[in-house]
Each structure stands twice: as C-alpha cells, then as structure tokens.
C-alpha cells in the first residue's frame, strides 16, 4: 500500500505530495513519537506504579479478582505493572498496530504473556462477552491518554465509552482524577504571540505608526492549543494577576461525560493589571486519597526539587479574546469552555457575567476571522512584534533604499514592503502568491494596507516568482530585492533559502546594479550538551524494572529508516543546552548571485572547549542584511564562559542528534568533532554527518 505525504519543497516553497511506501508514515510516527520521553519520565512511571499497586490491593481486599483494562497500552508498561502488582488478568488495548505488535513482544519478553492480552483495536471497538475480546467487564481502569491540554488526545470520549461498555460500576481507576488549574497573568511577551502591536518607524518625514486592521484587533484567534515549556519562561516576562485557581476536575472512576460544557470560577485579582493570558496545567491523583499526585505545575508553584522534566506533558497558554484591565480585589468570573477535545477561556466582570448567566454562556470555540492567525503562527506573531528585530531591518533598508528605488519583497506575510514604503522607496511591490491553498494571504494584505491608507502605495503581485512578468512591475527593473526571508512552509532553518531560489527565478527582472537584502546568508553550527532534550532520542533499556529494549530498537530503526543524517527542528529557548564547541560558520549563500548548479559542501572539525556530553549539533541561519547588519535565527550572542546559550525566542533551530545518543554508547571524552555538510542545490535540503 502507498500513502501520500505532504512535504514542503524548499526550492519552490510549495507543498508537494510525495508517494511513500506504507512504512513511511509509521516510521515517522515512531521516530518522532513521545514514547521514549514517557519511558524516561520517572515521576510519572513511579506514581502510576504506586497507584496501580494501591488499586489492585483495594480490589483484592474486597475479595474480588482484579481484572484490569489498560486503554492505550503503548509498550504494555502499565499492564505489566498491574500484573506485577498481582492483577489476575489485564486487557491491554492499543489502536496503533506497530505499537500493539511491540507490546506483544515486550509482554512476552518480560514473562507476562499468560496474564496480559494485547488487543489491537480502538477501545470503542472492543467487545465484551464469552466470545468477545474481553471475557467480562474490568474492575480496574488504567489509562494514560492525556496530552498537555489533558483532553486533546480524546480521553473524555474514550472514558465515556469505557464506563458504558467495558468496566464495572464502581470500578477503580488509575489515575483516579485529574484537576485543571489556571492562573491569570499579564505578559507582553506571550500576548505578542496573539496580537500584532503597532509598529513605529522613524522616517525622514516624521514618525509613522503601522496599525493592524480592526478585524485583527477583535479576532479570537485559533483554537489550537499553545503548549510550551513554561519553566523556561523567566518570571520577569510575566506578572501573575491571580492566585492559582482550580478550574475543573474529572473523576475517572465514575461515568464521564464528553459533551461540550463550561466551568466557571470567581476570581479576585491579587494585583491590578491587564488580564491577557490564562496559564494552565493539570495534575492527576493516582488514588482517591490524593496522596499519589503527579503534577505539571510550573516552577513558581512547586518546589524545584519536585520538578521532573518531560516533553510529552507541558503547560498551556490560553489567550483571552481581548485584553481586560482588572483591579485588585475586583470580582471577576473566569469561564473555561470545552468541547470533546479542546478548552478555551473567557473572562468577565462580575456584573456582565451575572447577566449572561441568566441567558446562556457563549460556548463557541474561537475561530480566526481576520485570517492573520491562519497566516502567522504564534512564534511568527512574536517575531513580527520584536521591535529590536524590526529596527535592524529598518536600519538596513535605510541604507539601501533611494528615492528612485523600485522595490520587490519576497517573503510570506512580511511587513517589509510597508517599511520600505515609509522609508521612501518610490515603487514597492510584494509577492503574495498562495503557495498553500488554505488561505488567501492577499485578502489579509488588502485589509492591512487599507487600515494604514496604503492601498495605492504598495502593489500586491499574486504570482509565483517564475511567472513574474514585466507588466507586474510596470515595465521597470527591480533595483532593490528584499526578503526577511520567511516562508510559512519552512520547517528547518535553511528552508527559508527558498528566497534564493525565488531570487534566481526573477533574475531577468533585476536591474544590473540591483541590491539584494539580505545580501547573503550563512549556516552556523555548534556542538552542544542538552540539559534534557537528549532524553527524547535516548534509549531507555529498563523502565521500573521492565525490559523495554524492544521499544528502543524500534525507535532506532525508525530513526534510521529515512530521517537518518537529517536534523529536526526544535525551539531551543525552551530546551536549554550548553555549548561545547565554539559556534562555527560552515556554509555561506550569496544572494547577489543565482543558485549554483553544483552542491555546496564543507568538511572540517571543531574542537570541544568544554567538558560535557556531546549530544548533538545545533544548526541555524544568519542573514546578512547589509555588510554590517545581520540577524540571527539561532544564537543571539556568544555563549558565556559556562557555555550557556541564548537562543532566538521566535525561531526553531535544527538539532542533529549524534548516533551515540541514539545508541547510548559510552564514549571516552572526545576532544573534537568532525563534520561533513552538504547543501544539495537541486533539492534545497542539507545532509550532514558527524564523527566524534
Ligand atoms: N500506556 C503507555 C502508553 C501511553 S501513550 C504508557 O503509559 O507508557 C497512549 C497510547 O494510547 C498510544 O499508543 C495511542 O496509540 C493509544 N490510544 C489512544 N487512545 C486509544 C483508544 N481509545 N484505544 C486504543 N488505543 C488508544
């Protein structure tokens, strides 16, 4: 069987559908899965084990047989815990076939085949009865079906069904309950992920202020969850306006309702300020007493000694529909609305809320009306709101623009054309071709230009670079070609080199003395030791005494299947690391020339300056706007003496994990790392190889 996989082509900036073998999807799923991370989550594993032991004991004390239903067994871990704790029989349900197969192997290897039956089905397809998948209903329900938002992986409908058809009334559940907590905060940094702030430009004829269109001001945004490693957000970047409040809980031992509903709590701000953001996390009590608790609370809420790093469960950032000024001690109501899979929030002053209560609460999920939230994701909003960054572009544009400049901008949803206009370019055009058919960027652009009375000043060209005609440019040649560059289809840092391909495609339209901004780009590389991120690719061996090496081997196979010698994107501001080598510029790309026919490659070695575990290499791009102005999408400054790094907060960097992490070989301290890096100009991809 073949499947089609969407992949952006960095030479065309377009999504392409590639035919892949059946295995491709599954290897992707395994290679990029969070199974390894879950198995490394000691706190989670220990508490599940304690909770399962306690539940089995309670059932046994009642003189009953302990029959366990483990929904979403994955490696079979929780069923093996139950069997070890004395459960009489376990039904381990797993919908994902490769995982169900792995569970069978792991269960067998650990000697539990007679106690655990692995069933490769979705739980809602499981049958009970003498000829069914399960002989009888279970009296212990064990699951781990939670995501950062708790319910995003479908826990509620799964529980609802299980209580109706698969477990006995009054069953034990591990976890027993989940509780969702919230805290109201003001944070310019996080608010800048949702809203475009006015942008100030000092032009020769005075200050100009670029404002977003009104539709954007009042737009509720998109419902997708914003999950981050909140522990990496310094306390100076937000201000808490309320105490931590319990928003809602779910008792998993009783029938669960998945239908849409809402929960409302009263709040009194502890401080006056602008309510913008609701931070949220949850905890699970593994037993009814609440003594076995596994919490995702961030650092300011719990002692650092209790912090367990994990990537499969983080914290949520919810954006209120609009900013609300609040006063200390004032009465407020916070409403959490949810459907089966997602949660969103509303804040109201007491009086408005009481009036509304009489009517009915609006439980419609947020839908972006302004289109900006479809075109720009949250980090992109943050990037566009970054005044320092904008200032670099303004300075650079100021250097290259002249009053007779004919300027063309190639970048997705970029504000550069407006900046170029304010800074005095005679004619400004921007290319807004829909390379992705999901939305129409030109409509957002039109609204944007209208809000700033620039409709007749900036021309939108709805064509792809290779289809550009002299008539699009009013028969003029381009004297300044600009780009950030930024393209929505880019996954890895070098995919924005699509700008170079577009520049090549429009070559015949460029004036002989054209200025290209950025004039060049460079690829940078540094060897690092991660504080925690290494865990997601590192083998686990045994987990709470159970041999899960089969899983390790499976992940290794999948990593080697296709993605070998490839890097993966991670936003490193969320994943601290220590630099072990100097940062090294490894390749440069000259935008004043066209993309060459031949590949660009380099080889070399970097010395390791600091002691530490070489987990991998980080790669990022820097854009040289002019000879003396550069912007970095990776390292923001040189690492300090200890090797601590500050990363661009808006961008993902590329991480290449060394095979020693994947194989868990113990290496005697290497002193240098050799590398070979190749940019294939035909595909726009970079392949790399490292040796320790
Ligand atoms: N229980 C394991 C794995 C948890 S990951 C552990 O704790 O380590 C969740 C797993 O549940 C995934 O493998 C997913 O494929 C599976 N899953 C999710 N919902 C399911 C459902 N309703 N029926 C069967 N499997 C499900």
TrEMBL record:
It holds the Pfam family PRMT_C. Its main location: cytoplasm. It is found in: Cytoplasm; Nucleus. It is an enzyme of class 2 (transferase). Keywords: Chromatin regulator, Cytoplasm, Differentiation, Methyltransferase, Nucleus, Repeat, S-adenosyl-L-methionine, Transcription, Transcription regulation, Transferase. One of its GO terms (molecular function) is protein-arginine omega-N monomethyltransferase activity. It catalyses: L-arginyl-[protein] + S-adenosyl-L-methionine = N(omega)-methyl-L-arginyl-[protein] + S-adenosyl-L-homocysteine + H(+). One of its GO terms (cellular component) is nucleus. Gene3D superfamilies: Hnrnp arginine n-methyltransferase1, Vaccinia Virus protein VP39. CDD domains: AdoMet_MTases. Its EC number is 2.1.1.321. Residues 176-347, 519-681 form the Protein arginine N-methyltransferase domain. One of its GO terms (biological process) is cell differentiation. It comes from the Eukaryota. The keyword Nucleus applies. Arginine methyltransferase that can both catalyze the formation of omega-N monomethylarginine (MMA) and symmetrical dimethylarginine (sDMA), with a preference for the formation of MMA. Specifically mediates the symmetrical dimethylation of arginine residues in the small nuclear ribonucleoproteins Sm D1 (SNRPD1) and Sm D3 (SNRPD3); such methylation being required for the assembly and biogenesis of snRNP core particles. Specifically mediates the symmetric dimethylation of histone H4 'Arg-3' to form H4R3me2s. This is Protein arginine N-methyltransferase 7. It comes from Thryothorus ludovicianus (Carolina wren).
